[in-house]
Amino acid sequence: EIKKAYHKNIGYIDESVFNEYLEILVDEGFVIQEGELYYDKELYDSEEIISSFLKKINSYPEEHYDEKEVGRLLTNFQDKFGIEYSKKQKEAIDYFLKYPMMILTGGPGTGKTTTVKALIRMYRSLYPNESISLVAPTGRAAKRLSELTGLEACTIHRELKWDLHKNTFAMNKNNPLSSEVLIIDEFSMVDSLLLSKLFEACRKVHKVLFIGDYHQLPSVAPGNVLKDFIESHLKAIELDEIYRQTKDSGIVQLAHQLIRQEVHDLSLFDQYKDINFFNSTNFEVVKNVVMIVKKAIESGYDQNDIQVLAPIYKGVAGIDALNLALQEVFNPKEDQDEYRIGQTVYRVGDKILQTKNRPDDDVYNGDIGVLVEIGRKDGFEYLEDTLIVDFDGNFVEYTSKDFLTFTLAYCMSIHKAQGNEFKIVIMPVLDDYYIMLKRNLIYTGLTRAKQSLFILGSPKAFLYGIQNVKDAKRKTTLTSKINQEQSLNLYDFLEEEESSLGETVDESGYQEDLPFEDVPF
Known about the structure:
By secondary structure, the chain is α/β, with parallel strands linked by helices. The chain has helices at 2-9, 15-27, 41-58, 67-81, 87-98, 112-126, 139-149, 156-159, 192-200, 225-231, 250-259, 285-298, 319-330, 414-417, 439-446, 459-467, 478-483, 490-499; strands at residues 31-34, 37-40, 101-106, 132-136, 153-155, 162-163, 168-169, 181-184, 207-212, 236-239, 275-279, 306-310, 338-341, 344-347, 351-354, 368-375, 386-391, 394-398, 406-408, 411-413, 422-429, 449-457.
């Protein structure tokens, strides 16, 4: 496998030369050999750290609580919010209170949100002095988690105080977080490298809750952590009963039908008022997307409510082409200032997508803002050309060195949209996207929609995509490492003892015209 990958990416070299180079890399510690397997050193270490942390935290004893008090708290919570929890939701709350680690998973509309809200409030009532960290992989997901719980939540990078320039984390094994409880939302997006850094800083944590939907896309970076955890038979409670408030949602119903692989044709779309499928060729997509957007604007929606999603950047129906067309709809050239960067013209009022993490400015990959000001170098107020973007009240300045860290956000990739929700989602699904069409991609895209979903493209491509569950299996050994029998020795205790002495910060990081008059909004 390693030779295949090398030959594919670098080019063919003689096998003896390849083996010699590989041996040198192993000797120098850049590559780890374990039996017939070879690992990148950093990825090997990440799996070791994750599996060790899980074994340690799972060794903690069951906690005992006042069951009468918990019953009273749950009854009060249900009465206050008009909720009646299902058997599985109550099981999740009970398990979280008793045991050190749990995965809460489930598709949309199954009550993950209300379950998390209850278990956090109840835990805080029972243990008011315990410190809880709430984190998520993206800024938007963290903001939503904060709104849900009423507690401060932040990105994992911010929690660990990531230094962008040094690529290190201030919070680490020698300078751990003060938190005793860790809750991670949108866990399907978390990669193994980042999770290992988080776990290294969690020496004081004795309880962890992972929240995520394993049917969504895995992390962009290496690893498939949530799926590996579930396949390792770590305690996972999957909510599968659709909550009564969302039973009328065709989007929720369709998502669960995809999970159960029950969709074999498009006739079911006729029964859903909030889902519309329109036949379109790749050359018709831009025109038809623009028409849908104009109709939505006429119905009172704005650019924050409407999101177009596509899986590729190039081509007549790619993200770049759609962004240019949609810019002319949402923010046409009038009297506002504009600025050209490469082939793209940015105007004041444009919807902007952040594509790189900027922890110092508290803005992260996937965050969406609005361009509010263009400042040109004048030697006085602006020492160089500057663009200012408003991210929900957080005003971030960009100069020339940062100009390639953002783009237009009228259309974005499904990967970038993960962790976000929008009132209206418009998603082309075309034969041109063939190489990208997989069930988890389509599932992730359609579950971004809260009110209305528009799918444009080829029925054949859509049906192919939702039936294509053969994703390229990521080569991880995390499951086997988690399931290995744990053997403790003297060095484990010595390491723990040493790390508790003199805690100092080190720098170990890290077709036909569409019937738009009949389109329901």
